[in-house]
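Problem 12. The chain below contains 661 residues. Write out its predicted structure in token notation.
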Amino acid sequence: MEKGKGEKKLPRVNMRVLVFCALGLIFGIFVCFRVRFGGLRPSDFCFLLVFLAAAVFPITKKRVLCLLLCTAVFFGAGYLGAHLCTQSYLRGEESGRYTVSGTVASFTVERGYTSVILGDVSFGGKPVRGNMRVNLNSEDVRAGDVVRFTANVTKYGLPMSEEGGSEYEFYRDIRYRAGSVDFEKTGVSKNPFLRLQAKLYDVLSAHMDSPQSDIAFALLTGNSGGIDEGLGEEVRRGGVAHIFAISGLHIGILFSAVLLLAKPLGRKAYFPAAAAALLYTVFCAFTVSSVRALIMCLVLGAYRMRGRKYDFLQSIALAAAAVLLIRPSDFLSAGFRLSFGACMGLALFSGTFSRLLQKIPHFPRALAGYLSANVSVQLFTFPILLEAFGYFSVWGSLLNLVFIPALPLIFLTTLIFSVLSLIIPPAAGVFLLAPKGLLSLFTWAFSLGDFSFVLTGFSLGMGGVIYLIAMFLLSERFRMGKWTRAAALVVLAAFFTFAVVYENVVFTGGRVYVYAEDEGVAALIKTKRSNVLVMDGDMRARDCEELLSHRFAGTLDAVFVISENEQDGLNHAMFLDAACVYLKDEIPTGLQKTEVRFGDTAQIGGLRYTFLSRDVLTVTGEGVAIAFSFEKTRPAGADFFVDSSCGGLNFSFGHGIIKEL
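Solution.
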């Protein structure tokens, strides 16, 4: 009887104070960005309210005060930090023509040009804040090169604004963009780490064949832009792209390896391991995942050095708070969400799954730990992957079972022999034989089969929040009776199903989803009877596929190209899976598998599409028209439906409003 009373006094949520602080900080940043970028929705508060409602029990004055104070103070800090971040992003020079100088911070080699991100940017010799995206008309560009050119420069606004970029530009602090330009190299950066990256790229390229050299460079630096597009897509859809994004795996492997080598030093082995991890993080330009891994490794080492028990959940919260206090915009990074999501999955579920597997007679403990870690990560990152990339890899769990155990060997071998190649260049060809062989096995493994099967073409919407709440209730960190837990999960499963169906199935009227990338814009018009894509000539096929991966999987009924440059638009549209492509004026098409039609009007799925000019398209139903004119303004997404009582096409403001004639 006394035991039962004691159990009732235990808190519902077995968390730490630092976790409440980190949660308040994250939610403050989230709310600020919602307000600045697109407006708050009631569903945005669900997870925090459920978490706090559960954490407050048993209700005591000290617990309630501590919980509310920690959450409120850090909520304010997060909101203020995010606000200052947005204000800083809006500062800078206005759009115009400038002579630009900058240092190549990262680059992706394309066919005939190199897409780069410039740092240390100056206009006409005057330093400006922020980075710049530009295409340089050469493939001979490396990190650390200082370049100069004259171009028409466009200043980004905040995401969702008329002149805004995407969240990617915002969290990377890319404030300016220019098109393709001719340029001149004026020097090399004094930053030793950028120069080292450039030297590494040249050494790998000179002594290893492609794609092995590109894979090795991505593995060591996180810059995967040089990897063949086909192989890169296979790796991403196979669910193992994190191998090429400097993450906790890489930093952890390096930290553990140095710790093992320095074991004779006893507790002092922590210091060389920490120094190696710090240097590598600096070399990787302080990416979110590398900083998170560095903090967690330092905390882990400090706990062990002092002989204290390591608190994994506490260290995750500390790492998250440290990253976001310095750079609140990193919250928008898919890398941040996946990195910390994976860690949260491990903290919440790996122990539970491991104990369940060990109950099977003669089941190896090491295998149980590895399988439980893999499943825990996949389980918690599922909604994050869908939101960030529009798909979830079906093969991810299986391929990770193979590649994660092999990663320490591949990574350390590549790192060690690459360093030796930089130190002794004449012997680089010999040193790089070992990593070349290992990476050849990697590419060979992906050539054996098709690993591109993914879950795609739909969005979780509110279902993502419900899913995370369900994961929270399932974890051991939340104390709940067996039957109460089961009932809660049944209710949440019903809500999850409803939310996903509502988000993706159109029962009446339709929805318009808009996607913008650089100068290009596309809109998906989704109704019960048809799915039509409207795109301009600057929108690339792979960017259109990004929109479709989040909203529609299957063959489009039609693609409409609205642009003065119809030829470029047609060239990209032909790569999309569509029944027909429509343009206003007739142009040469060559040999095309997809049917191409020309003319002023088309009737599809009960809606009438009319070209007013090459770059203006109207969509009408019941006599009311929606106008798409991407050359002038960017439309926002919207719901629309035909209401016979009003005699026209009406709009719901739930997802914004599109331009109306």
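Discussion. Residues 200-236+396-454 form one domain. Students who got a different answer should revisit the alignment rule from Section 12.3.
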